[in-house]
């Protein structure tokens, strides 16, 4: 059974990585029009090294995604805890209110933000981008962390309180360690949502300040070259290595499960 | 400030605390404040603007006088072909969600039951990592896999040189495939979160009572994973209905969905009111589906417990 | 009015500055050389690096860009960012709308010396006039018509789009106005104001079995054509030159008997432009024959509105061959559409697309 399960996981990974592999391969293919057969070149990486616009856009994206992940995870986790563990009037309504940001196409939310931010003087720029990204990431965090909370029994926490622990201490000592994987997962999602977000970034960025998805979106019209594959590959390999380093040096235990 | 907000509510034990402590509702409000305050400014107020727009005759930019009308909400009646598009979008949404749920549930199950420790953490990260590449680049890569003479065909012809093309770019299945690829990690993660907390003892107890694997799956594992499946379904179905990139790029001629219609209204046609009215109608349909769905779920859960 | 707009801009600018100060673009040197911001499609002539360097060397004016990806988006950007742009590219079908909304200024041609060489029928085209004033400098024009794989039979009519010989091998331009124009030309109607839209709709629906995909960008067209996904398509004249010359694609541009769908792009000065005179100087450079010849031969461009520039091209130049000046007399240029007509076109195209998908 275990062998079958592992084989299945492998198959899922192959499926998930198939287009990623193609993306990476095409970054080394000579044809600007992504034509086959494959001819090896590194010229897109050479071209990329001189493309300051694309590089700075890549850096901007990472910075915004990191800030977004931190802010959205903090706010969203707090809300998820309140919604799951405390008496909240109108809980269902509050939960339903998490859906519009996901359900309304980002194009509309983005246009609405552009108009509203213009009227209220918030304007465009990195701050506006952050406001938008965090808002879009929050519902994902609340939903993911909420799922985690629902599967953690609250009686443990209550037992701790009845034994004289303060609610704060009970939460941090009992629930939070169990919740950590959910919170980490939510943060990874928030990061991904921000990194992939192009519509809102496109509307809210100012001339000269762009994120990578905005650059890619603008490039659809003309010149979507394998340079974009190259920088995507670098970003992915970069984040992979960060995670590998993190995994090696992170203290063992922590989020590890009992088994 | 957020740290402050976490500590303060919890520092006031509900009810029995000293008089100068803040009341319990204040703590709850402080926990909810950042999320809903943020959503209010960044999403709800702007969307309210759009809601007002959706009752206007034309996009309120430029010099034309503003006339209020309901005509955009009647679009489904005056332009009946939109009903067909909406239905197709729902079908694509259901297929995507269904496939994600099946594939994702078993992936999460395998992850939770057949791996441990660092291997499991690494696998989980590996599953989430494709998400960190741009969606457009991923969809575009799929076109190179699926088109006639693409990677899939090349592989196929390497096995069977005489066979015809199996490329299926510009078809409905291509759209669903692209969407499943994009949303599967959500489902795996939410199911995993639900499954990982399941106690071994429950399954062992079921096994010792002679339950078959099918019974364990349907009577124990799926109900326990239900919160994860529900969240995953929300995170898949809801955005898929409004997606426009995957249908447009992978669908070619058949790639017409509510998402692309709405996108056209905003970009090409510059008819924001119609685009907004269509998406609010869509939102209403989605909310109705989930209201029905959660009602059914609650009734079933009540019957079992 | 102007003052309040400036104030709004100040607010926007201040906000942007506060949040993004460490980034170089936000630092506007108080007393440096003049800098102008151009709003255009990306990769459409005004942002050629070599040209901007030459222009800056000659005039000391630095040019930066902001881009749009659809015409309504361009108008929205002008409306929501008054005072942010000095030059904007506007399709002549939208010029009157922009002028009537007070988004752009009438042109002072005395500051655009090269305008003397403009073809009169373009310089004074009714499309770019509003209340007897000219609001744009005619820059480039082109034709939307058919492109085929080199060597295949040349279609003599748009009816080829419905010919079973091209089954599943046709790409259409995903644009309501262009598609309606084709349907109108096929049914012998005025493409800017067809009276029988149902006939247009039926004609377009007749392409269903042939349509493989709808393209929306030149890049997408190039990649799909390179992958041999279609052999007949609706395409732009200037893009056909670029696809053939820069990407070495075997494409041939054909204007069938019904005539091409003409378009004219002009460069305009937005109301409240911080450096209008520098903007005009840039426009002047953009219609300079020397710049055009270099752009057209090195990169590939639509036809210049400047007759002198077209004559400077080598006689065998592909661009010159495709953009025969005689077309100027015969082709219809897309003109301004009233809102209700545009909406009718859009709804029609949406319905046809739904039919294709069904």
TrEMBL record, chain A:
Its main location: membrane. Keywords: Cell membrane, Membrane, Transmembrane, Transmembrane helix, Transport. GO terms for cellular component: plasma membrane. The chain crosses the membrane at residues 7-28, 54-81, 93-119, 125-149, 170-193, 199-218, 230-250. It is a multi-pass membrane protein. Pfam families: BPD_transp_1. It comes from the Bacteria. Signal peptide: none annotated. It is found in: Cell membrane. Residues 58-246 form the ABC transmembrane type-1 domain. One of its GO terms (biological process) is transmembrane transport. Belongs to the binding-protein-dependent transport system permease family. CysTW subfamily. This is Peptide ABC transporter permease.
From TrEMBL, chain B:
Coiled coil: none annotated. CDD domains: TM_PBP2. Residues 86-293 form the ABC transmembrane type-1 domain. GO terms for cellular component: plasma membrane. It is a multi-pass membrane protein. Gene3D superfamilies: MetI-like. The chain crosses the membrane at residues 36-56, 90-111, 123-145, 174-195, 216-241, 274-297. InterPro entries: MetI-like (IPR000515), MetI-like_sf (IPR035906). Keywords: Cell membrane, Membrane, Transmembrane, Transmembrane helix, Transport. Signal peptide: none annotated. It is found in: Cell membrane. GO terms for biological process: transmembrane transport. PANTHER family: INNER MEMBRANE ABC TRANSPORTER PERMEASE PROTEIN YDCU-RELATED (PTHR42929:SF1), INNER MEMBRANE ABC TRANSPORTER PERMEASE PROTEIN YDCU-RELATED-RELATED (PTHR42929). Belongs to the binding-protein-dependent transport system permease family. CysTW subfamily. This is Peptide ABC transporter permease. It comes from Metarhizobium album.
From TrEMBL, chain C:
It comes from the Bacteria. It is found in: Periplasm. Keywords: Periplasm, Signal, Transport. Residues 1-26 form the signal peptide. InterPro entries: SBP, Sperm_putr-bd, TAT_signal. GO terms for biological process: polyamine transport. Transmembrane segments: none annotated. Its main location: periplasm. GO terms for cellular component: periplasmic space. Pfam families: SBP_bac_8. One of its GO terms (molecular function) is polyamine binding. PANTHER family: SPERMIDINE/PUTRESCINE-BINDING PERIPLASMIC PROTEIN (PTHR30222), SPERMIDINE_PUTRESCINE-BINDING PERIPLASMIC PROTEIN (PTHR30222:SF17). This is Spermidine/putrescine ABC transporter substrate-binding protein. It comes from Metarhizobium album.
